[in-house]
Design a protein that fits this description.
Elements lengths: L3 H9 L1 E2 L2 E9 L2 H9 L8 E7 L18 E8 L10 H17 L5 E3 L3 E4 L2 E13 L4 E11 L11 H4 L3 H5 L5 H20 L3 H9 L8 E5 L5 E9 L5 E5 L4 E4 L3 E4 L3
Parallel strand pairs: 2-3
Antiparallel strand pairs: 1-2, 3-4, 4-8, 5-6, 6-7, 7-8, 9-10, 9-13, 10-11, 11-12
């Protein structure tokens, strides 16, 4: 399947209204995006790699499997009209955009795991890493949204424990997908959802996100930043996007960060 949009993007350095920096291989597109944001890269600049050698997850020590020619690995530089306290909401917005793009171009019905993972039939297919960069001397903050998506990755390329936990669009559907078309669709949905967020429609975004929440109503375990394990019922994100977990004593915990997984029910 020819990646016409992909090849045009590489040749022109553009994808729609997005300036593009393309790399055959890099350590991490987020690292490059953070560096570029500090040197004045404009809003909506896109960093795309065919493969990554040091793709990062949200939590320390987590990596993202990034083989060449099969997945989407990209980072988007944003300078949103949002208060810094609202920047974490961009992660949930990006997850919704990913889901809507995949629903438009594939037969998949993806689900979302708070705050930043995309799942297909119980296995992880994509992840989002949102980071901020204070721009030197400008009193300005850029937000970088990094996305990794397993597109045409064969299931046999996931080694060891990863094979039971990870999947790809191709592994789930048996079809190959044009990465350029997928990237263009994701960016179009991202543009829409970021505009909605800037216009104050986080509650509308949240309502759509909750429809895709794979953990809502299930027992989950949360490892907090102090390493303590808390088990309780996931109540989904609150109006600010923080996850709520009700433990066995009825206490509701508001989760800002940490590792969440399904508990034994």
């Amino acid at each position: 399947m020819p990646d016409d949009i992909w090849q045009t993007m590489i040749l022109t350095g553009e994808l729609g209204r997005h300036p593009v920096h393309f790399f055959t291989n890099t350590g991490s597109t987020n690292d490059l995006a953070l560096a570029l944001s500090n040197t004045g890269a404009p809003d909506s600049t896109l960093i795309v790699a065919d493969s990554q050698s040091a793709g990062r997850g949200r939590l320390a020590g987590r990596t993202w499997h990034s083989p060449p020619g099969t997945g989407l690995y990209f980072s988007l530089i944003l300078r949103p009209h949002l208060a810094p306290a609202d920047f974490p909401k961009l992660t949930l917005a990006a997850g919704l955009a990913l889901c809507k793009a995949l629903q438009r171009l594939t037969p998949c019905q993806p689900g979302l795991k708070w705050p930043n993972d995309l799942f297909l039939r119980g296995r992880k297919c994509g992840g989002i890493l949102t980071e901020t960069q204070a721009v030197a001397g400008a009193g300005q903050t850029a937000v970088v949204i990094g996305i990794g998506l397993n597109v045409n990755t064969p299931s046999e390329s996931f080694s060891g424990d990863l094979r039971a936990k990870a999947t790809s669009l191709r592994a789930e559907t048996g079809a190959a997908y044009d990465r350029g078309s997928l990237l263009a669709a994701i960016l179009a949905e991202m543009d829409l959802v970021v505009a909605r967020l800037a216009q104050g429609d986080f509650q509308g975004i949240l309502a759509e996100w909750r429809q895709r929440d794979i953990h809502a109503g299930h027992l989950v375990s949360w490892v907090n930043t102090q390493g303590r394990i808390i088990t309780g019922l996931s109540l989904g994100p609150d109006e600010e996007g923080l996850l709520r977990i009700r433990d066995g004593r009825g206490e509701i915990h508001s989760v800002l960060s940490g590792d969440i997984s399904l508990a034994q029910e």
